[in-house]
Each structure stands twice: as structure tokens, then as C-alpha cells.
Amino acid sequence: MNPRNANSILFVVLQAQILIVLCAAQDFDFFYFVQQWPGSYCDTKQSCCYPTTGKPAADFGIHGLWPNNRNGSYPSNCNPNTPFDPSKISDLKRTMQSVWPTLACPSGDGTAFWSHEWEKHGTCSESTLPRQHDYFSAALNLKKQVDLLNILQNAGIEPNGNFYSLNSIKGAVTAASGFTPWIECNVDESGNGQLYQVYMCVDTSGFNFIGCPVFPKGRRCPSDIEFPSF
Ligand SMILES: *[C@@H]1O[C@H](CO)[C@@H](O)[C@H](O)[C@H]1NC(C)=O
């Protein structure tokens, strides 16, 4: 083989490697950062259980940071070789108990919730947030950047069991954050739609809010929704 052919083979191999790296970096397109209102989680037929650490604050809590594709699909359970390891985030545990509380029954200290979030979603963003500590820290940082309850209260939207227009809720978050959220409702025992989860979009770095490339396909809210107390 002459040296020129050897060079071009090397070039092709290098290109293939670059392509593989690029593909690995693009295994998702953006994140949904999802926060939930505990009052609506609990105000259902199924109800809820407070964590073993006690009743959470009356504030939106983190549900998760979920990799998603532009076409609406999402990857899940991407790496069975990196199971959740609480010892890797022990320094974050107290903060997580306060802003990422579990409300599932039976009562827990949050470990089962965070483990589920890491294994289903976190393992799919290891290309940009390789360590468990990076992933959970990114979510905690996002929570600090957008104080949803404060934004809504500044717009006169209070968790007092009253009904508010979906548009006024979306409008308040859009005005304060610069980005239109997706609102997910659930229903109380009487069948009223209520403010359950707020989705905002984040770039693949996990640090910057962006306009949503696509909204979730979930259940739509009625035009007026309840904001229950907690
Ligand atoms: C959506 O995009 C992802 C990633 O690009 C791809 O793997 C998946 O097959 C696509 N799904 C559909 C339904 O097009």
C-alpha cells in the first residue's frame, strides 16, 4: 500500500470516530425541567404520603429533568451499568429533601424517587452530565433560577383554592422567565382541573432555559384551573 492510501484510510477512520462522538453527543435534543405543585399532587382521589422528613414546604417541588427529542419521543433507562448511588450525592441530600421531596406512598426519605429519576432519565444525559452529582446539581440550580411560586404570586395567582385562567398562569411565567411553559393539570376528587406540573425547556448542557422545541402531548388543561392550597 502506498503512503497516500494509508493516509486516506487513516482520514476515513478519524472521520468515523468523529461521527461516533457527534452521535453520542446528540442522543437527546433538550431537557424538560418539570416542577410539581404538592397541593395538586395530594388533592386527588389517590392522595399522597408526606415524606419521612415531614410535610414539605408549600412550594413547587422538582419532579425531574428529562432528556427529550425534538420529534417528541424520549430516551429512557439508558445505562444499567450506572445504578443510583446515594453516596455520590450525600452533600445534596438535605437540599433535595427540601426542594425535591417525594409524595408517593408509602412514605419515604426521597431515595426511591431520586433513584427512579436517575435511572429512567439521568442515565440518558450522561453525554452532557456524566456524573450523578452533575445531574442532580443541574436540576437544583435550575430550580433556583425560576421561582415559580413567587412569579405566580406576584401576578396575583395564589394557592388558595381559587380558579385562575390557564392563560394568566402561562402569561405570568412567560413574562417573568422569557419562555412559555407547558402546564399539566390533574383532577381533584370533584373532577376539577388543577395546576399540577409546569414544564420548562433547557438546553443539553442542563444550565440554560430555552423556548420549547416541542410541547408534551399530555392531557390538556381546561381554560380555568384550580390552584389548591397545600
Ligand atoms: C425521534 O428522534 C430520535 C432521535 O433522533 C430517534 O431515535 C427516534 O427514532 C425518532 N422517533 C420517531 C418516532 O421519529
UniProtKB/TrEMBL annotation:
GO terms for cellular component: extracellular region. The active site is at H63, E117, H121. CDD domains: RNase_T2_euk. It comes from the Eukaryota. SUPFAM superfamilies: Ribonuclease Rh-like. GO terms for biological process: RNA catabolic process. The keyword RNA-binding does not apply. Keywords: Disulfide bond, Endonuclease, Hydrolase, Lyase, Nuclease, Signal. GO terms for molecular function: hydrolase activity; ribonuclease T2 activity; RNA binding. Residues 1-25 form the signal peptide. Belongs to the RNase T2 family. This is Uncharacterized protein. It comes from Stephania cephalantha.
